[in-house]
Specification:
The protein is mostly helical. The chain has eleven helices and no strands. 18% of the residues are buried.
């Protein structure tokens, strides 16, 4: 056995133990895969709720992030500092939504390896069918299934994958979100032509259906988180806080200036002048 094969074998031991434990309780190998999916997703519920809340918060923060990008577009370093500070203020981890996906990748790869080498755990005469013979053998590759079974599996897979993508919160543009929702159709064409065991598709469809139901429950019972607007509380870091808009000042009423009165002319003396004096002398 190659060193890589030895590493993969050791890594799949816990997964194989869980499958064998569920199978020993009376479940067929196909239903053991379904039960294993439920066990994994139940264990991931706290992380998944946190993931979806984080993604919903990221969606709500997009308008404020765009403001920061426009304000500090000429200084990438300062922009990164402000964005990280904004995330801290809102208790948001931009990478927190990736954790549940990262946890499921080893399980997906482990199932692929186990179903591709069924002789490791399946004994002769074991029931490998699913749903009363709908799939006769879960170790059969998808491309070797009959046309009707393959078509039904692909329709359920694409529908469940699109539903999970549409219900999951996303920071992408809504038009891009619908474009991404069409990706499972292209991916379905790809996996049909590859050596994917049918049992792996059972795990995938079960995971998608769980994701759809869980996203609907979270939307119904968990309100979207609020966020805190960005505030520049400190100065001296290369920028000043935005000035508050000035309040309009009402002009004070000005009292009208009084019109200056003209001085009255002095009164003319009665009998004054030469004629008056002559009259006095003549009298």
């Amino acid at each position: 056995m190659t060193p890589l094969g030895s590493i993969i074998t050791d890594a799949t031991q816990p997964l194989l133990w869980m499958l064998e434990t569920i199978h020993s309780l009376g479940a067929t190998w196909a239903w053991a895969i379904v039960a294993l999916t439920f066990v994994v997703r139940i264990a991931l519920v706290p992380l998944t709720v946190k993931q979806q809340q984080s993604m919903r918060r990221m969606t709500a923060l997009q308008p404020e992030l765009k403001k920061l990008q426009a304000k500090y577009k000429h200084d990438r370093q300062l922009l990164n500092e402000k964005v990280m500070e904004f995330y801290r203020q809102n208790n948001t981890n931009p990478f927190g939504s990736c954790l549940p996906i990262l946890v499921q990748i080893p399980i997906f790869l482990g199932l692929f390896y186990l179903l591709s080498s069924p002789e490791r755990f399946i004994e002769s005469g074991d029931d490998l069918s699913f749903m009363a013979g709908f799939i006769a053998d879960i170790t059969t590759h998808l491309k070797d299934l009959d046309t009707v079974t393959l078509a039904i599996l692909m329709i359920i897979y694409v529908g469940s994958q699109v539903g999970s993508m549409l219900l999951m919160p996303s920071t992408a543009d809504p038009r891009m979100k619908y474009l991404f929702a069409g990706m499972p159709i292209l991916f379905a064409v790809f996996i049909v032509n590859q050596a994917f065991p049918a049992g792996l598709m059972i795990y995938w469809i079960t995971t998608n259906l769980w994701t759809v139901a869980q996203a609907a429950v979270i939307r119904q019972f968990f309100p979207p988180p609020a966020f805190v607007e960005m505030r520049d509380a400190k100065r001296g870091k290369g920028d000043d806080p935005p000035a508050a808009p000035a309040k309009p000042v009402k002009p004070k009423p000005v009292a009208p200036r009084p019109t200056p009165k003209r001085p009255l002319p002095p009164p003319r003396p009665q009998g004054g002048g030469r004629r008056g004096q002559q009259r006095k002398r003549g009298s």
